[in-house]
Amino acid sequence: MKKHLFLHQLFNQPLLVLPDVLHEAVAWAGGRMGINLQQVNIQLPALAGADLGQPAMQAPAQPTASKQQGVLTIPVHGILVPRANDVGLCSNQTSYESIRQQLNAGLADPAIGHIVLDLATPGGAAVGCYELAADIRAATARKPVTAIVHYSAYSAGYALASACSEIVLSQSAGVGSIGVIIKHLDISQQLAEKGIVVTTLYRGEHKNDMASEAPLSEAALATVNSLLDRHYQQFCQQVAAFRGLDVGAVQATQAGLFFGADALAAGLADRVETQQQTIDRISRTLIQPHEQAGLKVKARSVAMMINI
Question: How many other CB atoms are found less than 10 A from the CB of residue 225?
Fold first, then answer.
């Protein structure tokens, strides 16, 4: 029964995710429901390493860090969901809740001088995304937070990356997909062909707006479009504010994908370098102050000996 509850995460919800990932998830949902939801003109190759019918492997919630280097790396991998309890839709997911827990732990740990988000995600849920992005931006006032795109930070993933102090990606890595998408499932024709009639009794004009046993009404469609507009505006405004861009420039990306140097030209990233180069550069910035502090202590000791 639990797997059927995951359907509410796919349908009738604003999502910040790559369309092809959503298409595959919808095809999987059809299999769970016993109906063919293969979508017109969409080819769905299998996701490498993913099994949408098996329990998920959630990244460890406990932060891992090298205290000698003072760098905390937080994995942001796979489809993004609001809470840890939501993990289970596919084999590679990360919850906003677990990211926030690790972020707060890194901020509280005096041994940590720099926080890194290691991003490899097509995006995910809109719910909870904007709030976490705001928390990440607030964290940058206390400690530097670098987004390493390894190898994708799309949609919700980019919303989180945009809040960081710096966005670094490799030459082949991609960012963007700044847009919102909603799927509505209409199985009314299939039900009619099978002679099945669903009768729904409700109170409240909009209570049954998104029911799958009927096409969307004009009123329901207007509600959905209003919801899309609101989320799209919030997404674009937040990215624009975090990246120092004009909202019109963000909207002009038209939810496109940008790779390497093109991402820099669009203002969606700050530098192109490999993941290892970024980690080495960050480590050097943390080691140098310690070395300088050590030299000062030695100098004071020498001065005291001379005075004696």
Answer: 11
